[in-house]
Amino acid sequence: MFRANDKHEQETFFDSRQWMNHRVVAKLEKSWAPVFYEHVFKKIDEEPFAVLYGKTGKPNFPVNILLSLEYIKQMRQYNDLELLDAFYFDYQINYAVGIRSLGELNLAERTLYYFRQRIYEYYIDNPESGDLLFEQFIKLLHGFAGEAGVSLEEQRTDTTMFMSNIKKAGRMSLAYDVLTQAVKAIPKDKLTDSLSKVLEPSFKTDILYRSKQQDGDSKLSLLLNLCKEALDILEQQPGMLESDEVRITKRFLNEQSITAEDSEKLVPKSKKDISPDSLQSAFDEDATFRRKGNVAQSGYVLEISETCSKDNDFQLITDYAVEANTVSDVEILTGRIKEIHENTNCTDMYVDGGFHSEEVYEEANKNEIEIHLTNMSGTEPSKKLPVTEFEIEPETNTILKCPKGYVPTQAGVNNSQTTAHFPHEACSGCEFRDQCYSKEQKKDCVVRIPLKTVKVSQQRETMKSERKENTSKRAGIEGSNSALKRTGLDKLSVRGIVKSTIVCGLKVTVQNIKRFTKFMQGGYKPKKENHTAPRDLCAQF
Fold first, then answer.
1. What residues form DSSP beta bridges with 159?
2. Of the ranges 311-320, 387-396, 520-529, which one carries the lowest mean pLDDT score?
3. Any bridge partners for residue 259, and if so which?
4. Of 140, 179, 432, 538, whose CB count within 10 A is highest?
């Protein structure tokens, strides 16, 4: 049964501060704990979490305490047992979650687990409205921004790849993992002699560690056919058709094998025929493969947006999303722009060239957001005159003058291009003749420029004039990515896109909590305003 927790609002006779030295109490009041209590714990809205509990039975452990502890766990990078020890014996943590006397509440490890499990299951069952943690993230964001006077209008966006709790597996290792999971699901009395050997230690050694390069295809073929043998048996077992083992084995065989022309045996597909979104792990079906620059990784991609106004004392993360790493930066941002605008009233977004596309600009225009590029993908045309040398009417894209100042005899826009006609005498002796878009015809010379080229050229020109400022504003987000990586983002301790989203959401929220706490403790004030630079008390996190 759900019950909101308001016990912290009530006076208590038993307060450990009564027995503390007054100097210790003074240090407590200057620590992170009161900031967390006032601006995080007390701001958590418990009501949305009522859907996780029934209407009868034993009341739930307080949600605001459980969620606060999840934040603190990420702050200090605790495991569950370390978190419980701290909850029992660390008065700062007790104070931060509204408890004023040590030992007041008992918290079982399974309670932490069940809370996370309930959030996960609700997310799975309610994909359109099930992100309870994101709702709290936005609520805290607005609280921090309002208290600290942080403007949300100017923002920057970037993505970074990460792994879930999986190993980097080659085809052979992946095949072995899929096979062993399938074999383990088969009743012992249904195992064939060949499948029984799969679980023997010597089989793994022979397959994975004693393989010569020239034996690779034959051993991979062996694993593929053993997978098919296991799948045939599993599909005959009652209740197994919808099992994870059957689904994963089927998917693996479809993606990795074909039937040989001269037999019914399976043989490996060519590597080039295997899709990046193919199965990467027998234990995480959602993970995908992507090569970005010099980095190749199996896992996911995290998008974050954050404020970047130079008038802000510090910056806050305003949005996050986890996707398969095969989803492009353009797709991610296009899908997030509307929500970013609705949640923050963002007016300006600073991005790098990976986000440049018509889709991004169109969606941004719909939501009254201006996109600022720090660079653009691709190379500038070298043989042609820059389109910006032509005088082009911005609203209609009609060519008004050529680079030499000639006015066209006829001009208009059709078939996705802007067209202008010039007399022969205007073009024949022009010094730019070899570089110009102009083509000679019988009656005159005609210039045809694709509208896409016009737009890209205008964007490049705008970007060049604003590059220094745009680059400066966007660059800071790399620091946020690095900060998240230092908290374990590179490789999470969970598997699957939903659990990865939950953990990433906690980590991102904690970054905002740490920045706001530092601000409240005076950590962002200019040095010239301070006789003594304040010690970074937030470093204890």
1. 303
2. 520-529
3. 266
4. 179
